[in-house]
Amino acid sequence: MLTLLLIVLAIVGLLVVMRREAGAPAALAVFGVLGLVGLLFDAEIIGGLLLLGAAAVAVAGLPALRRKWLTPRLFATFKKVAPKVSATERTALEAGSVSWDGELFSGKPQWEKLLAFKDDGLRDDEKAFLANQCAKAAGMCNAWDIAQERADLPQQLWDYLKKEGFFGMIIPKEYGGLGFSAKAQSMVLQKLSVNETLMVTVGVPNSLGPGELLLKYGTQEQKDHYLPRLSDGREIPCFGLTGPRAGSDATSLPDTGVVCKQTINGEEVIGLRLNFEKRWITLAPIATVVGLAFRLFDPEKLLGDEEDRGITLALIPRDTDGMEIGRRHHPIGSPFMNGPIIGKDVFVPLDTIIGGPDMIGQGWRMLVECLSIGRCITLPSGATGTARYALGWSGGFTRVRRQFNVPVAEMEGVQEPLARMTALAYISQATVYQTANMIDHGEKPAVPSAILKSQLTEFQRVLLSDAMDVHGGKAVTLGPRNYLGIGYSANPVAITVEGANIMTRNLMIFGQGAIRCHPYVLEELAAKDANDMQAFDKAFFGHAGLIFGNAARAFTLGFGIGKASVPFDGPAAAYAQDIARLSAGFGLCADAAMASLGSALKKREMISARLGDVLSNLYLTSMVLKQWQAGSKVEGEEALLHYSCRFLLQRAEQAFVEIFDNLPNRALGKTLNAVVMPTGRRWNKPHDDLARDIAKRVSTHSALRTKLLENTWDADDGEQRNPLARYNALLVDYDRAEAIYRTVNKAYAKGELPQTALHPEARVEAGLEKGLINEEDADFMRTFEAEVLEMLTVDDFAYDAFAKNKSTLIEHNGKPAVAPKPEEENVK
After folding, report:
1. CA–CA distance from 104 to each of 268, 539, 584, 680, 689 (Å)?
2. CB contact at 8 A, 575 and 45
3. Is 498 a catalytic residue?
4. Dihedral pair phi/psi, residue 281, rounded to 5°
5. Can you spell out the DSSP letters for 475-537?
6. What is residue 60's predicted lDDT score, i.e. its pLDDT?
7. Taking every annotated instance into account, which residue ranges of this chain make up the domain Acyl-CoA oxidase/dehydrogenase middle (predicted)?
8. Cβ-based burial of 596 (10 A; exposed 0-12, middle 13-18, buried ≥19)
9. Half-sphere exposure of 673 (CA within 13 A, CB side)
């Protein structure tokens, strides 16, 4: 009995020591004390074994002993097997900052660090800009007009964007810009996402482009000249990075600059001769100034002893001799300005280098540091804004679209995608807002930028597909009335640009985070590079303690033992506690994958991607909880919180299962499964009851729908009609209309109305004649049903409308198709 008791106490004591990462002395005390108890009370065998364990812990764990024999051997082995980090990888790893992502990597997230990012909201001028300028700009857009008729924004909209400073949101007021916070910048782009061409046009100059690069790295002379001109639209910028052979692998630039001398106005000048071919450059066709990335060489060593000077950035005026610019690409689904730039023997002076000669060779670092913020904002904000509009349109449409005498929003086949859309919109809003809030507190989130870009644009892909499904024929028939179809077709652009999602998910999220965010890996690699054995010893054994700690935390939390302390109450608490459990499991699996696969993990992209999926879903859930904690709640929001968190945590657990099943070392996979999920999976997909409740609220005039659609253009006061405002107005009156529908439909089913009353309008008139409804109700329904029919109607065109070359038109019936005169076209 005593032997069994000592074994149990040893296991419990060891788990406590491991969970607290108390170190070798505490483990030594557990083994030593229990071993002595065994020897003193006639349990010599277990007592001896425990004392042997204590001796092993002392020899391997106490710094004074291990550094004499164990650490040198480990250090020598580590130097042989540790992955080599290239200069470009190191630059990427050192860029940006580590914040909440590092807490999740640690396996023991300290929630107070996340909640410490207080939200001060928006300034009054930012709120006014959203309410006024953004609404006016959105009201000038019609997707069909922009995509099919103009292939451009209207001239008056371009003029308005320049006049109101849309292109200078990130530029300080001292240079004539708006000086907006990251949150305000994100909110502006969300509101402008009513049209994807508008959002991209405004977003790009405020993201990765000359403006941000000049702010951070430009000389004072460059700032004074360009920033005011960028702020008021006198200069339209673009940035040339990608090309035919340099897309996702942007470090392999084939574009070159050569330091040389050239005589200008009789004076010999040192400058750069550039040769480049860039593609997919947004705003290039209309840009007045081009930011350019290239590899700089100095074969004559005019600037120093090095010949290869590395990636460098320059700012080149449009009219520079030798540069070809102005042609357009045709981005799928959207005519935003995008095109190639080609340069042959383009000579520019040294002062065109952003930051001047001192910044030669610093281009990759400059780009990575800027991208860590821009990638958190532009495309994630666009995806979030798209989610708001698509959800608002879909909820309204499914409520007023009736089939089988009921709104299709009452059908469970429609409720399922509506609820999913709502959750994706809710998660996106929380994530992009809270991450922007971190940026406003000085963070430069490198790994979260990859999470937001890939995850939120993938959400956009799912959400738009769901929106198309529930709209049916309304959305697949293009024309001025179709507010959804063109944006749906443009979605692949967001998936592809700023780091294609395939690359971002498979290589960047975990690949960068495993070193950048891990508490010890970067220190271990630095110790290797410095050949510092003492620093390695400290980092390595700290790392070992973390591994044991995460194993103990994951295992005990899996049984519900010793739940993590979290600063949440109510429904959020359980989800925060489970993030702590899964974070410990993630930290353990990350270390296991790195240890078992070593440098081969770079090539095992599917495993790396699944580890990234775990981190991504934990990060997204954390942002939802932070938003819930900080914001005001409305009726019905708790159901949405449950749906969103269960959706994300179920995805995280699914990623774990796929990791366990696919690790090459099968014994390791099974062991991890037993440690991380000792009682099996905890989270299932959200329950149908939640889906029904959420779908009902977003398809009716509810507090939840109103909250989710905040910061959209929702007033019918623009130059173009606003479908969202029209749906909102219909939903305000819907309850009254539904009661009348029920009255006349019930009478029709009983045979009390003529069988020829097949349309709602006919039944209303028949019901009025029979005295089932009064004249006031009939008038109301005439107006209501006319507006419903308008929202359900699709466009039609003349027979020859789509043939650019009319001579190719086939007269299928042997005679020209009858086409109405232009003024008779039913195109609105």
Report:
1. 57, 19, 8, 22, 31
2. no
3. yes
4. -100, 110
5. HHS-STT-SSHHHHHHHHHHHHSSS-HHHIIIIIHHHHHHHHTSTTHHHHHHHHHHT-HHHHH
6. 84
7. 238-338
8. middle
9. 17
> How many alpha carbons lie under 13 Å from residue 197 in its C-beta half-sphere?
27
Axis crossing angle, helix 210-217 with helix 220-231, rounded to the nearest 10: 150
Burial of 680 (0-12, 13-18, 19+ CB in 10 A): exposed
Three-class secondary structure of residue 796 per DSSP: coil
What stretch of H or E contains 672?
helix 666-676
CB–CB of 31/10 below 8 Å? yes
Cβ atoms of 109 and 583 within 8 Å: the answer is: yes
Summarised one tens digit per residue, pLDDT across range 733-754 is 999 999 999 999 999 999 999 9
**Bridge partner list, 271:** 260, 349
CB-based burial of residue 526 (10 Å sphere; 0-12 exposed, 13-18 middle, 19+ buried)? middle
CB-based burial of residue 758 (10 Å sphere; 0-12 exposed, 13-18 middle, 19+ buried)? Answer: exposed
Distance CA 663, CA 640 (A): 35
Q: What are phi and psi of 382, to 5 degrees?
A: -60, -40
Q: Which amino acid does the sequence have at 436?
A: A
Ranges of H-type helices in 267-411? 363-400
Structure confidence by residue, pLDDT tens digits, 88-108: 667 766 777 899 999 999 999
Within 10 angstroms of residue 433's Cβ, the number of other Cβ atoms is: 23
Rounded Cα distance, 547 and 106, in Å: 10
Closest CA to 710 of 418, 429, 309, 298: 429
Helices (H) and strands (E) in the chain, counts: 34, 9
313 vs 356: CA distance, rounded Å: 10
Residue 54 amino acid letter: A
Instruction: Give the DSSP per-residue string, 395-433.
Output: HHHHHH-EETTEEGGGSHHHHHHHHHHHHHHHHHHHHHH
pLDDT score of 826 more than 80? no
The per-residue pLDDT for 321 is: 94
Tell me which residue has tokens 């935003």.
336
Phi, psi of 262 (to 5 degrees): -145, 140
CA 486 to chain CA centroid, nearest Å: 21
Could you tell me the two tokens for 780?
């109301």
Using CB atoms within 10 Å of the CB of residue 3, give its burial: 0 to 12 exposed, 13 to 18 middle, 19+ buried.
Answer: middle
Paired sense of beta strands 289-297 and 237-240, if any:
parallel
- Residue 233 falls in which region: left (phi positive, over 0), alpha (psi -120 to 50) or beta: left
Question: Alpha-carbon distance 420 to 426, whole Å?
Answer: 10
**In contact, 295 and 361? CB cutoff 8 Å:** no
β-strand partners of 239: 291
| Domains of the chain, start order | 1-61 (no CATH), 219-353 (2.40.110.10), 723-792 (no CATH)
Nearest-angstrom CA–CA distance, 517 and 101: 7
Choose the catalytic residue: 21, 369, 498, 765.
498
In which element (H, E) is residue 554 found? helix 533-558
Q: What pLDDT sits at residue 277? A: 96
Which region, left, alpha or beta, applies to residue 777 given φ > 0 means left and ψ of -120 to 50 means alpha? alpha
The model's pLDDT over 598-607, given as tens digits with 9 standing for 90+, comes to 878 888 999 9
For 337-353, write each residue's pLDDT tens digit: 999 999 999 999 999 99
Residues in contact with 653: Cβ distance below 8 Å, sequence separation at least 6, in sequence order: 582, 677, 681, 682, 683
